[in-house]
Amino acid sequence: MSAVQQIDAIIVGAGFSGMYQLLSLRDKLGMSAKVLEAGSGVGGTWFWNRYPGARCDSESHSYMYYFSKEMVNEWEWTERYPQQPEILRYLNYVADKFKLRPDIELNTRMQTAKFDEATNRWLITTDKGQQYSAKYFITAVGCLSSANLPKIEGISDFKGKWYHTGEWPHEGVDFKGKRVAVIGTGSTGIQAIPVIASQAAHVTVFQRTANYSLPARHHKLSGEFKKYAKEHADDIYEIMTTNTNGHPFHMQDRSIFDVSDEEREKIFEELWAQGGFQFRAAFKDILTSQEANDKAAEFIRKKIREVVKNPEVADLLSDIDHPFAAKRPPVDDHYFETYNRENVHLVNLRKTPIERITAKGVKTSDQEYEVDIIVFATGFDALTGSLVKMDIEGRQHRKLKDYWSAGPRTYLGLQVPGFPNMFTITGPGSPSVLCNMPPAIEQHVNWITNCIKHMEEKGLKVIETTEASGDYWQEQVNAVANETLLPTVKHSWYLGANVPGKPQVFMPYAGGLARYTKVCNDVTAKGYEGFQFAS
Ligand code: N01
Asked: Ligand 1 pocket: which residues have CB below 6 Å?
C-alpha cells in the first residue's frame, strides 16, 4: 500500500458521467479530483460494449455533451445513430480536448470506499495499492455495466467459444463459417442478430420473450443536417431538457383517441417510415393508457407480420406479452427482415426452455442445437449491480449492499441515507435509463457540482440525506411509475426481475427529465430540502 493521498474528490468510472464530473470539479471549481477506471481506456459503456451492430439508439446530435458550445461546433457526427466506434472516438476526443487524461487512472479498480466518521472523509483503496482520502466520493459507474450472465447449467462444459455482449473482446469475433447461438432478444440481441447473421454460416436465436422494435432507418447525415444541428444547438438542447425522455423532439400533446382510425394509421405509417423513438412520442397516452397502447402495439405486430414471410415465425415474433414501450423498446436495423434469411432459425424458449449448455451447444427441452459460438445477449444487473458489487461502507459501517438488500433507497437518485458526501450520478431513483443519457448525466453532474460549490463556499464539511428523505423519494418513484404502464411488466429489468434473487422494486424515476429537473431545482431553492449539512 502506498501513502494516503489527500484529494478533494474521487470519481469512479470514466464514461460520459465520470469525465464530465471530473471536468466540472477540476476546471469549474478548481478542486483536485481523480477518476478511477477499471478499463484500459475511457468510454464506460462504449468501451465495453463492442458487440457487432452496437450503436446508440438516441440520435447522434442528441447523444453528446452540450456544456461546451465550442465542442458542439467542433465535433462532427457522421450517421443518424452513432455506432460504438464513433461514440468511443467522441469520448476520447473529449478526454483530449479537455486534457482529462492526467487525472484518470486507467486499469485501476476501486476496491473499498469507507467513510471515516472521525474525519468526515472517504478512505478509498484501489487494486493497485493506492489509498486516497477524499472529501467527496462520486460514483459514475453507469446504469448498465454489470453483465448478467444467466446461471445456465453446463456453460463450463461448452467446447466452443462463448461471449457476453457487454464484455466483448477488443479484437472482435470472427463468425465466418461458424454456427452461432444468440440467447436474448432485448435491445442488444436485436442489434447484434442481423449483423451476426450476415457473417455466420448459421444463427439460432433463442427467444424467451418476443419484443417490439422500431426501425432505425439509419443513414449518413447530410451536410445540411449537420449545419442545422450546429446552428440550432441551443434550441435542440432546450427541447431535450424540457421533455420526458431527453430526446430532441417533444411528445405530441394529443391522445390516441383524438384522431380517427384513418388519421392514426397515417401518423403511425409516417413515423414508422421515419424511424426511431418518434413513434413512441406520437401520442401522449401510449404509455399511460392500456387502450391507447393496444393501438400502437397492434400496429407494430401488423408490421412484423408484413415483414416476416414465414407465418409461424411471424407469429412467434409478434406474440408479445407486454405493452409497447413498457419494457425498453429497441430500435433496429432490419431485425425482423433477418428472419427471412435461410441461415436464421428462431427457437421459442417459452415452449421449449433451455435445459443446459452441453459440450456441443445448447440443449432445450426438445433438442440439442450444436453450435461453435454462443452469444449471451442477456443484459445487465441494471442500475444497482455495479454499485453493490463495490465494497462501499458508510456511517456506522453500513454496507451499501446490505442497506439495499431489499432494493435501492436513495434521495433523488443522488444520495443514499447513511452515506455522507457520496453522490451517485444517474443513481436508482433518477430518470437515467428512461432518458437519453447525456442530458440526464449533465443535469446530475451540474446539480452535484453546484451542491459542492455551495458547500465549499459555506465551509460545510458534510452533506447527507436522511432516512425520511429516502422514504419520501421511494414513494415518489413508485407514484410516478404507477402513472404509467411501466410497472405492469413483471419481467422487466426496470424492476430487477431479470436477475434471480434481486429484490423487485421499480428503480428509475418515470416522471421524466423535465419534471425531475424541476424537483431537483426546487430542492436547491429550498436550501437543499431533504439533505442535512454539518460544518
Ligand atoms: O438486455 P435486456 P439488453 N434464458 O435485459 C433474455 C440498453 N441498450 O442488453 O425478456 C433465455 O433488455 C431476456 O429474455 P426475457 C437499453 O436500455 C442500449 O438487450 O427476460 N433468455 C431478453 O430477451 C436496453 O434495454 C442500447 O424473457 C434470457 C434478453 O436476454 C438495455 O441496454 C443498445 C435469459 C436481455 O434483454 C439492456 O439491453 C443496447 C435466460 N436465462 C442496449 N436471461 C443503445 O442503443 C435473459 N434472457 C443505447
From this structure: 55-57, 144, 150, 152, 183-189, 191, 206, 208-209, 328, 349, 354, 377-380, 433, 491, 493, 498
Distance 387 CA to ligand 1 centre (A): 19
One domain for residues 297 and 419: no
Q: pTM score, two decimals?
A: 0.97
Any domain includes 135: yes
Q: Within a 10 A sphere around the Cβ of 206, how many other Cβ atoms?
A: 26
If asked whether residues 232 and 349 sit together in one domain, one would say yes
Which of 376, 400, 419 delimits the end of a domain?
376
Tell whether 185 and 330 lie within a shared domain: yes
What distance in Å separates the CA atoms of residue 308 and residue 338, rounded to the nearest whole number? 8
The DSSP bridge pattern shows strands 422-424 and 131-139 to be parallel
Closest-CA residue, ligand 1 atom 15, reads: 209
Same domain, 370 and 504: no
Query: How would residue 1 be classed by pLDDT, with cut points 50, 70 and 90?
Result: confident
- Report how many domains make up the chain: 2
Closest C-alpha residue for ligand 1 atom 39: 188
Same domain, 166 and 205: yes
**223 phi and psi angles, rounded to 5 deg:** -60, -35
Give the Å distance between the CA of 188 and the centre of ligand 1.
6
Range of the domain at 221: 155-376
CATH of the domain at 130: 3.50.50.60
Closest by Cα among 153, 144, 206, 149 to 437: 144
Q: Which amino acid is at 220?
A: K
Chain segment 339-377, per-residue pLDDT in tens:
999 999 999 999 999 999 999 999 999 999 999 999 999
Q: What's the pLDDT tens digit per position in 158-181?
A: 999 999 999 999 999 999 999 999
